[in-house]
Amino acid sequence: MIVNNRSVMKLQHLSVGYLVKSHPTPLLKDINLDINPGEVVCLLGQNGVGKSTLLRTIAGLQPPLAGEVLLAHRPVQAYSIQELATKISLVLTEKVGGGNLTVEELVALGRHPYTNWLGLLSKEDKSAVEEAVALTKINYLLNKKVGELSDGQYQKAMIARAVAQDGDLMILDEPTAFLDLNNSVEIFMLLRQLALEKEKAVVVSTHDFHLAMEFADRLWLTNFNSPLVQGLPEDLALNGLLEESLYHEGFGFDLLNGRVLLPTKEGTTFSLAGDSPAHNWTKRALERHGYLPGDTNAAIKLTIEMEGNATSWVATNQRFHSLESLLNYLAGPKSK
Ligand SMILES: Nc1ncnc2c1ncn2[C@@H]1O[C@H](COP(=O)(O)OP(=O)(O)OP(=O)(O)O)[C@@H](O)[C@H]1O
């Protein structure tokens, strides 16, 4: 057996869930794993599978139904709130109060576990706040009231507070739920930076499969009535567990190209000649309209041509200058 002495946290035979009418009702059962410094873990799974419940349990906010959450060899429940706050930085989805605080004051709250009884910030505290603000790029928000922030801005301010808190373990529940693509990528880049440069262990739940594949060192895959599966994203792709966990009734998933695969059906076939960057876009548009890729005997024979930046499609001796005009032609005159 390999003993992992590096881990920040150990989950041992952990079951998480709720007492429903006094009966333990587990959502995820018998989880055994280590959370390592310097790693970003992405927790994936369908709505309601128990991701938030798992994160809340490992953060010590609710008791395990069975098994143990060990933080530096001690059950997380044995820590005082103050002590825990210096070790675990938590960003949850729900809005907590503090609408009248400025963003700067909110971020400074991250230093609360370290300040004296007067709550005064030391030089070190102030520089931790400044660093958190710089890393999350929210300088322009500092004087705004928390209650006046957009959902995305609020999310970034809460992440800044967690960065200022400086726990060894950062737990974030869907931190990019309200963020646009730019901000989502920035947050994931920041999480990687915190893991790599500051040796933080980062556990983040997300529904963004592509960002998880891009940024996670490790995935935790959850499914209803199944054991949690964990591993490197590439290992899970190669051993088929990723595809298995992503399978949904009625459609599949093309992992390499990151596309949803609709069920195949009978339909008119097409072939594509001409090697151009437009090849994939053409295939997508045709498939979405119910045409199927075929061989050289296909009913519709298309050639893609490029002149400079201009793409055109040739079918049955007619030339089309957009996919829209090609698809309209293939559809034929619409009956009313
Ligand atoms: N306090 C509670 N008591 C009983 N059941 C609860 C409680 N809180 C949540 N649940 C139930 O536990 C299940 C899992 O909820 P959880 O929020 O952990 O899921 P999730 O995987 O994070 O979902 P999502 O992706 O939608 O955020 C849900 O069916 C939910 O209704």
From TrEMBL:
Keywords, comma-separated and alphabetical: ATP-binding, Nucleotide-binding, Transport
| Coiled-coil ranges per UniProt | none
Query: A Pfam family matched by this chain, by name?
Result: ABC_tran
Q: Which domain of life is it from?
A: Bacteria
Task: Give the transmembrane ranges.
Answer: none
Translocase among keywords: no
Q: Cell inner membrane: is it a keyword of this entry?
A: no
Residue ranges of domain ABC transporter in the record: 9-249
**Which Gene Ontology molecular-function terms are recorded?**
ATP binding
- Name the PANTHER family for this protein: IRON ABC TRANSPORTER, ATP-BINDING PROTEIN (PTHR42734:SF21), METAL TRANSPORT SYSTEM ATP-BINDING PROTEIN TM_0124-RELATED (PTHR42734)
Tell me what this protein is called: ABC transporter ATP-binding protein
Query: Where does this protein come from, organism-wise?
Result: Imperialibacter roseus
